[in-house]
Amino acid sequence: MSSLPQPPPAIEMKPGVSVTARFSLLIACLAIILALQYPLFLSYFQRLTSSGPVVTGVGVDRSKVLAALSGLSQYKIKANAALHKKKREYNKLPSQQKLHLLQSLKYYTKISQATAAANTNDRVAKAVRDFGMRYYNISSLELHAYEKTRGRASGDHTQVVQALKHFVRDWSSAGEHERSATFPPILTTMKTLFPNQLREGRQTRVLVPGAGLGRLAYELAAQGFDVVANEFSPYMTLAHRYILSLHQENPIAKIDGHTFHPNINWWSHHRSNESMLRAATFPEVLPQRDVLNRLRLIEGDFVKAFLPLEESGFDAVVTLFFIDTARNIVDYLETIHKVLKPGGIWANLGPLLYGTAPLIELSLDEVLRVAEKIGFELLPVDEKWGDDTFPDVEEWKGKIKGNLAGYSWDQESLSRNAYQAQFWVGRKKD
Ligand SMILES: C[S@@+](CC[C@H](N)C(=O)[O-])C[C@H]1O[C@@H](n2cnc3c(N)ncnc32)[C@H](O)[C@@H]1O
Prior knowledge:
The protein is of the alpha/beta class. It has 2 domains: 36-44 and 56-154; 161-428, Rossmann fold. 47% of the residues lie in helices and 15% in strands. It contains 16 helices and 11 strands. The chain has helices at residues 19-49, 62-73, 75-91, 95-104, 107-135, 140-150, 157-171, 176-193, 195-199, 215-222, 234-245, 273-277, 289-292, 302-306, 329-339, 364-374; strands at residues 205-209, 226-231, 258-260, 280-282, 295-299, 314-320, 340-350, 376-379, 387-388, 401-406, 418-428. Strands 1, 2, 5, 6, 7, 8, 9, 10 and 11 form a 9-stranded mixed beta sheet that branches. Helix 1 (19-49) crosses helix 6 (140-150), helix 2 runs antiparallel to helix 5 and helix 2 (62-73) crosses helix 6. The termini are far apart. 37% of the residues are buried. Bound molecules: S-adenosylmethionine. S-adenosylmethionine is lined by residues 169, 209-212, 230-233, 236, 301-303, 320-322, 325. The site of S-adenosylmethionine (SAM) has 17 residues, from strand 2 and helix 14. The chain crosses the membrane at residues 20-41.
């Protein structure tokens, strides 16, 4: 007898999770994922909806501004961490030596005083940060969210310290010695080369790339030029914009109204603790409103921000301690040439300290030869602006002057960082 096909065995229904419970589990998982990713979602949403200022040339990279703001926020934490480390290291000394030190000097007191000074600096850092947040329309929530996603790597303390130090170079009477070695050749030459336009009120356009904290750009605008400053480090642009906000009509702006201690972050080369801890004040002048009307800051990389512009843009380009920052110095020279009108002027003053991973490192004569090849003719400059660098080269005699110029140079320090900065003026051939 053939067997009949059997029906498939019934599927056994095990007692299991109900549909409602599964749904609740799913919702709970989603909620946990959302909570963990909240900072990311928030910062993404805020980037979409933010109405930060639109800047001519290139857009502001919001995440770079956030990084700089975060660096400013963390000034105190990072400075204190460095000072705590000094305490820990001190405590590693043998007791006998600590006793000697205690009897002859007060190392711990020095650390406490440096901590107090760091607190003062922190107030400046926070003032710059708060202004920056208002300027770029960044809320505490957005900054906090950014910091959460980035953790400890969210800001660069060294860049904060460097940017704050530039308040001395540009806007403090303590930096006068740096400005007086570098500004007069540029400002006088510009006045000589463009005498009439200023008086007739014609707009003579000057570009200052790598403007730092903007004092030279400001002084050019004060002479009557229509000035564009360009700077790509957000640490610098935040401090730059902050200082310009302290103009004469700002009710909270006061001459020398800010105090900070620029030398406490590096403990080498100090002749005394008082010298290391001493304060500097800024701004030594309040920017004038009418001058600010002739000055604007374009953020971004000089080459990328300006290369696409029309050729006949600027009457002059002024570079101060800038051309050696290039990864590719030929790009810089070509850009300077390109943005100038025919007959336009390029005034340069600075060293050749090649920095950020340069593709090529040219000597001065090579820089000049490339500049001539690109289309600049060098002009004679006043002999009072320094020593002739090429007295024996007929074509350059009287055209390239070298003069000792400091950079972030503490006048009381036991170490002096100065350059034989080179000054020249080129004209773009027609
Ligand atoms: C050595 S500092 C000089 C700053 C200012 N000119 C001064 O003399 O105080 C060079 C400046 O150029 C800026 N910089 C470097 N490369 C740049 C680039 N490709 N585009 C715009 N700025 C740049 C740096 O951020 C820095 O502020």
